[in-house]
Give the backbone structure.
Amino acid sequence: MFTTALVKTGAFAVVERQQINEGFEREKRLKADKKATGKSKGSILSGADFIFEGTVSEVSAKESEDETSLSLKGMTVDRSESMGSIGLDVRVIEANTGKVVEAVNVRKQIASSGSGISGVGSMLSSLTGIGSKVEPAVNIKRARKDGVDKALRECIEEAVCKVAERLSED
């Protein structure tokens, strides 16, 4: 996610280091052994001016939670909401000196909610007297939850945009 966000800004020429053994070095060996064609067999890697480090610095599944329930004549209406958050800290380190040249932190909310209705048949039965032997049942539930991965991606993209803006000002 972080590499994708860096590339998408267009502000950085990103060099890959984490996956290098899986692809780039293997390809260079194939070309050096004349098992593949291309110009990379004798080439050297591009150097990096900056190193980006990101840390998920906080995760709070439920910072707040509210639940409400109302019952009337056998029918129950429920409503719940909860809020959590995720935070990300990003540092930009100058590769030649090791000096931290930029740092940002970003936080995103993670919301979830739910609602439900049950016992409609019980309420109708108690109000009308109909269905005392056979009670119709109706239950409805609904839930919505923000994804942690989505919130993390939003944190990363916001942090990278902030870093790109700040570094372009220098």
About this structure: The two ends are 26 Å apart (CA to CA).
